[in-house]
Amino acid sequence: MKYDKYRVDPKKKIEIKDFDPNESSLFEGKKSEARDLLRELNGEIEALQEQLYAEGKHRVLVIIQAMDTGGKDGTIRAVFEGVNPQGVRVASFKVPTPIEMAHDYLWRIHQQTPGKGEIVIFNRSQYEDVLVVRVHGLVPKAVWSKRYEQINAFEKLLADEGTTILKFYLNIDLDEQAARFLARVEDPTKTWKFNPGDLEERKLWAQYMEAYEDMLNKTSTEQAPWYVIPANKKWYRNIVIATILRDTLKGLKMGYPAPPADLETYRRLLRGMVSPEVLDEVHDDIRDDHKKEGLLKPKGAEAELEAYLAMRRADEA
Ligand code: ADP
Q: What is the pTM of this model?
């Protein structure tokens, strides 16, 4: 999937209007096929996350920004479906609390960045401080205008110290937002999500787009690039983001930590402790697991298992 066209090139100036929120050009198949693809990607992400956690070496930060109803929550749910909650965390940033307000705006952010072996997803982020804060004039321009550089420096620090950063702007348009608000007021299970204040924010759409455009142009860097994801179609948004995440995790070239010395001795010892039936069950489970997670398990594991089984059959014969 050639998703580079959604990446904001740090060397070029972009305009949001040039990104079509409706397009789905990188996937030719039907919606149901996209669902199958997402399931496959979920399996791969699950296996890669397991390695990330096991290896305990890399840190991964995924930042998601969008207008109201843009689909932040839905994206997180869909892309991380099935992933072991151990080692993955969502940090949501709302209106700052008094304690947060008493500090610089990056104080609360830095506390939530991922540790080794962890994936952290930011649902809103430091970028609120150049978006809502700018649009509503919560601090003077002299203050917010310096923040782009500060955020770049902050993200460079994280990247230099070994954090992989991905930033997604979920690009919906005004019509799609109206439809999604409507869905909230029409669906009794979704009315709780509807906040009349959001309609006031909607009137500031043009100002928000200006703020987003500046953010994308000033803070897309080599070490922390922005992707403008077409997000009117939820299924498309999900497969594009899941693909970028899968590829990024794969790019970390992770492996499983080395086993303890003398593994063979322990293997024999433990095999001797169980009945042949239990041994078969364990091996069946391992094979099922490997199948489910694709080709990501260590090379040779399958062959090693087969060789052992052949040896056992020979022993029994
Ligand atoms: P969400 O819309 O993310 O599901 P909420 O409805 O609680 O969650 O909205 C969170 C609100 O907090 C948003 O309106 C957002 O603009 C606001 N917010 C986040 N960060 C800041 C900030 N630094 N300063 C002011 N408002 C902020």
A: 0.91
